[in-house]
Amino acid sequence: MFYRESGEFKTSYSEDQQSFPIAFDRWFVRVVLLFAFLVVPFFINDYWEKSVLIPFLVWSMAALGLNILTGYCGQVSLGTGGFMAVGAYAAYKLMTGFPEMNMLIVIIMSGGITAMVGILFGLPSLRIKGFYLAVATLASQFFLVWLFNKVPWFYNFSASGMITSPERTMFGVAITGPNAPSWATYLFCLTLLVVFAYIAKNLTRGRLGRSWMAIRDMDIAAEIIGVPPLQAKLSAFAVSSFYIGVAGAMFFTVYLGAAEPTEAFGIDKSFLVLFMIIIGGLGSIFGSFIGAALLILMPVLLKNIMVGLLGWPTDLVQHLIFMLIGGFIIFFLIVEPHGLAQLWRITKEKLRLWPFPH
Amino acid sequence: MKHKNLTAAALAVVMVIGTGVASADLVFPSLSYRTGPYAPNGIPFADGYADYFTLLNERDGGIGGEKTKLIECETGYNTEKGVECYESTKGEGALVYQPLSTGITYQLIPKATADGIPVHSMGYGRTSAANGKVFSHIFNYPGTYWDAASIIVKHIVDQEGGDVKGKKIALVYHNSAYGKEPIRTLEELSKKHGYELSLLAVDHPGQEQKSQWLQIRRERPDYVLMWGWGVMNQVAIQEAANIRYDMNKFIGVWWSASENDVLPAGDAANGYKAIAFHGVGADFGVFDDLKKYVVDAGKAAGDGSNLGTVLYNRGMYAAMLASEAAATAQKIHGVAAINPAQMRDGMEALQLSAARMTELGLEDFGPEINVTCENHGGPGLGAIQQWDAAAKEWKLITDFVGADREVVDALIMEDSAAFAAENSITPRDCG
Question: What does the radius of gyration of chain A's CA atoms come to, in whole angstroms?
Fold first, then answer.
């Protein structure tokens, strides 16, 4: 009743092939986007920006990236933290090396550099699969973090090995640094995410996405019907690393403003993003968003309820949050092993038939 | 997207309710960590910090007649949570931040400066923040990492009878901004004194140090210095004991100097040395008051068993310095309910004499402090303390001595100038 296709007639190919063929979906996305672009910037404050929205946007971007590689192309990667570090350090070197460069270009170029590094580390995927590939990407994680610790050129020879993002502006408004207004950083990240999510959505519907999925579902069969594994796998690594690099660059420049490789881009970040896409839904753009929301916003929400509202001791709350998040993960995986996106898909099916299921 | 909106809506409700209570108290946020691999060190510090403010409220009715309010926020020594804690507490009128984490301090330096809230990174954080001309809102008195490195080297020189040429010194450090801080100073000092420096990084959280200590066993350095924190300290001391390294020649920074670090190794830790910037033990007048007004009244943050331990004392000392700065600010501005900007002025004008320390029940607990507009790093004095495993207590074995100012000050100038250039800051004129 709420969610139906009946009565919707497509009279042209372009209508039939649009990103959101169902009117309800289309309107829903439009309303959410209008709200995010036109309403939120007027009400955003520092807390919402730095603790809720920017982390959500940044991690959604990283989850999107990993979902392209793992969810769509079936190549398990544990190198996300390392690739984010590549994006962050590329952004740092570009920002300090070319102070006049536009932030948007810095971010895109950081993504490009990460894509190249991603292709390099994607090469083993042509020979090894599954768990073995996971171990190979794990090596990239440790290697990259070690590299950024070891070579002082990457952190401009600073005494502490810390990189800090200087103030950079776009259209005269600061985007990075402590004086950047909340609405500006928010809109900057939101725009990047929306544009790249749209591109990802269409990439996965197109020829490239279909070749990834063919490789994922059965690589030998895919090769027999004419999908070149070399191109498919490496393009997945490139696109995925690009997204993760952009996420890493935003993470460092806009969100944290200062970072060191071991803590900010450690192995736990790789696992965090992997959990996001597993819980959100492998092979689903929407799933990347819910996964990021669950793992990033849930702890903040729980903390605010238990410390802010109930006044419980902070250490008790922290331990409870660990247990609750763990419990949630197990619960969702038992109830719906295909992730929250599948749950949403089922809900949609039910809504189409409701209230007359038979 | 629907899910996100639901969460956001729920968050909005919580936030509105959570921040609804406004108060005129003096707010001191405590970015503590009572969970994770750094909790053994974070808990006593947070307890000491909280208990001293409780004592002020119970005994004196606050600072200058104004009650204090402590807001605790769990960071887990994690920078992202630290940022969340900062953002969630700064709106409540937070006067000064003491994050007890070099990583979080680095995050807060530009943010807090832009928001006009002072940060007191007492003996940690960015060393070059000691240059008050560049870092207007950041304070790290009474001493910095570079002071510590220099004083430790001085102690080694003394031990060796004035000549360390050709001696080998190894630094075991936490592979983070914190652990890397002393490297440049130690390198400069090695040029001056002619010792050989080798660097051994230990990755977070520091439970795995077998390879580092194997290397020490092979290279047999004459001295081992340690810049460790949390569980890393205990493991390092245990490993040193395992390879039977001479504990008299194993010296930690003041963050690798608590009871929690040496107790697990038992008798084997006997003789382990560390630098300290304040006194040890519970033999000070203030502890009687703490017992009477806080612990016995059932208002202690912990179970009260930590009184007199190194990190509890340090947390209490941090709170004392904050409250003295607040009192100074009240005097300067003539108002009881000070704001962060006034608190900053108070910190910059802080004068802590030996007489005042005695009045506070902390006779000879720490050095005299005179903060000025140029010097936010304090006197930079330190003493060497040694662990007595049989008595289970630390003993100061040297007097409080100063650092090699010639080397340290030059490095501070160099690093702060680099920061100023990177962030286009014009150094203040301190008149």
Answer: 21
